[in-house]
């Protein structure tokens, strides 16, 4: 009996030690217009999170017995914290425990809308430091969070975990939405209720790392995510490489959401005096459902992050569907003529323009890495094509894949040690190619000197680049990195990649750029600060694109989502056009093979997009009206900032009677005239509100019934204030 009593006493003591924390301290509030992150620098020297949510929420109070350790804001491992840590360290002397004590903080007002808070933490026993950065955007309700880790210990420190952020949430239950899939079925929405334990969403493939899942999510409290109601948090990691999003639901029903670089097989040996900077973790809060959370992100992205966010994205014609690698100079120039006839603004020459002799780029097995112009196909060079395009008053763009090499190439013959692979293993290829090791200084120099600068500098007429990356890492080994730093590969590669992207932007500020990675295998805001748009999928079947573009709309604004008209799926031309018009519009067709009616449809759609739709779609506020996951149709609208103009898209994804579409975001006091747009030649509208004027209040309360009933029917409706 005495042994049992002693056991109970010991257990209670341990629980008390775990539960005992700060009873007082300094409150630090980081506010936006509608949200507040409340931290406590406790009288026990630890940094806690008291809450993150509505600015109107009641003030947080500290429990009389002290705040629990599981509420630490950026918890380290090994000294009392027993849940999932944000950081795990082996110190130079081998000690595997870390404490992080609050030292001080500083708030800098960058401008009237942006504040930067820096919180300094230090281990009390070691010269080991973590600085937490939180940049707040007032109007957009956005928080950017990241950390910098550094030390002055006598020897290297090894980092095993290094989250960018790890905020905590308190609710009865939690619903998590991820955006997953694979090649040609990207950004599929999957929602689940979280249960006790850890749910991990991740990527381990390093390059083209987002092929199966993008590094973004939505978290809804107490109910499944609703478009227009409920508390929803949205997170996105600004990192093109392997990532980890971990959701730890603990024994007290608190949820910690950790986001950052995936630490899997990526321990990082940090030398004295160097800094390890984690990528930015983006957060937004909405008490009005996921629709408002998306609009927060879109507005922030356009104003602050996406390259030239307010610049029009050109309507482009890509030759890939028309020619693949089989073309010559005459064929390409003829495509310019077709582009001019229908009003297209830019021609993009895709893969196949480089390589010579036995390694000519006539298919995807040869020539990648040999960035000399194919003199058989293009004897007059790229400048000639630029000039011919300019004569027709259209821009000229080019496809590049700087990071890759074919085994059958001169580059690989000369530098077989430049590729990422594992020694003593048979090399594994993806799309008949391998990845150049960007941790190597000579590879960094090659990709700039012999690919990017070599292509753009002598050809100032190039105004657009499509940057591709068509495989991921399966054998993460480097012949350059030392044995004890092989685990640095996927981190150092992506930091070098971002530096190369930045260098391209800085040196060629007038060259617009599309991000591609075999579809949307690289879809993050870390990359998008250097790019204008991204290619959301190689699946251009418009029926499938409805779902793909719907998924991406939760995180990215329409001007970043490249949407092109093709023949994939054999769908009606009007349906294909209507789907593409809701994004950054483009064409992937051989215009010479169109029927006169189809050509007229393309020409009319280009004119419509340029004259009416582009400013609304690319700069307006998005409202998702009817989900294709729940209904027989999908519907979304964009509304101009002054609410004077709007456009509504309706896509019938399966046969069935249509649900009524109630509009959102209009000015209830204004009257709007509705007009069905992009009708096929000779067809009159059967829409009962066509040409009629209706109040914003009526359209939002009663809505309208679309005329679409059969699968692949669609409508585009314009609204203008009278």
UniProtKB/TrEMBL annotation:
Residues 71-271 form the Glycosyl hydrolase family 36 N-terminal domain. It comes from the Bacteria. Residues 634-716 form the Glycosyl hydrolase family 36 C-terminal domain. Its EC number is 3.2.1.22. Residues 1-19 form the signal peptide. The keyword Signal applies. The active site is at residues 468, 538. Belongs to the glycosyl hydrolase. This is Alpha-galactosidase. It comes from Dysgonomonas alginatilytica.
